[in-house]
Amino acid sequence: MDRQAWLDQVVEETLEPALPICDPHHHLWDYPEGRYLLDELLADVGSGHRVVSTVFMECGSMYRADGPEAYKPVGETEFVNGIAAISASGRYGEGRACAAIVGYADLNLGARVGEVLDRHAAASTRFRGIRHAAGWDAHDEIRNSHTAPVQGMLGDATFREGFAELGKRGMTFDGWLYHPQIAELTDLARAFPDQPIVFDHFGGPLGIGPYAGRRAEIYDHWKGAVAELAQCENVVAKLGGLVMAINGFGFHKRERPATSVELVEATRDYHLHMIDCFGVDRCMFESNFPVDRVSCSYNVLWNSFKRLAAGFSASDKAALFHDTAVRVYRPET
Fold first, then answer.
1. CB-based contacts of 144: which residues, under 8 Å, 6+ apart?
2. What whole-number distance in Å separates Cα of residue 252 and Cα of residue 261?
């Protein structure tokens, strides 16, 4: 079945449609297996929720074809900045797509990565930092991150030499990894207490391959690791990316997509633990689209977040849906 037709089986009325949202995590790409560019993004963010700005997150899209390997990822920032400029014209609604940009630079270059970071910054005033994905697992059933990390990368001396270049430029670092690696990010955060770090996708609690059928055991491990990481005041957390296929909930295999109520029932404990540990001022809801589109529509996903936050105060909701993301990523308006 066509993915859109599958998603269209579940249509919900938008909850709290006036609540301003900054979506701090989405991708754009054009691959043979699928396209997600401005039109597709606008179709999602225009589905009912008031998305006033978005943050683009690197995904290996539109790298330069020529030139030194280290500088090729700057092409992604150039590409996304063009999309942001189209959105900033105001011709496509009040929302500002890609108002902040997080790109990729190989921190394994050590201090030499500083030149790459400077080229990203020169390519766009919207550039805010990088994500160097670290998701690595020894099992063949688990796909490692697209940036080809090695085991223990976050603790490597050369990687950390490159990591230090971010702080010199006031740039952020998005940390994407799997749940057995959360302690490695904690160690990195402690070694660089002044470096802003964003903890992506709940730290990737895996539920497939060798981790299938072990949810309670993995949750207990994850819960303790998250509590430890949250002690690092320089870390903020993204609440999203939890209904990817790798998390093992299996929503993508169903005949009908999940409703927002079903999403809440499956993920509530993860969300509430993160908020308890980090506090609303260090948490932000994220869509992770179009990756999470494998399980639900954009409208249903944000409805689930609003159901999770239904008992929170207006100021707490403002932090979770907008203010934390804006403080961290400083989207252009």
1. 135, 136, 137
2. 16
Phi first, then psi: give them for residue 173, nearest 5 degrees: -130, 125
Place of tokens 């089986």: 9
Helix (H) or strand (E) holding 55: strand 50-57
103-162 pLDDT, tens digit per residue, is: 999 999 999 999 999 999 999 999 999 999 999 999 999 999 999 999 999 999 999 999
Cβ neighbours of 330 (radius 10 Å):
15
CATH 3.40.50.720 describes domain 3-329:
no
| CB atoms inside a 10 Å sphere around CB 255 | 7
- Distance set, CA 287 to CA 19, 44, 219, 293, 318 (Å): 15, 10, 22, 9, 16
Q: Give residue 163's identity as a one-letter amino acid code.
A: F
**What's the distance, CA 48 to chain centroid?**
21
Phi, psi of 209 (to 5 degrees): 55, -130
Q: Give per-residue pLDDT as tens, 45-62.
A: 999 999 999 999 999 999
Q: Dump pLDDT digits (tens) for 22-33.
A: 999 999 999 988
Name residue 225's amino acid.
A
CB 133 within 8 A of CB 156: no
Contact 120, 77 (CB under 8 A): yes
The angle at the Cα of 288, spanning 172 to 147, to the nearest 5 degrees, equals: 60
**Helices marked H in the chain:** 3-7, 38-45, 74-88, 113-123, 157-168, 182-191, 215-229, 260-278, 298-308, 314-318, 324-329
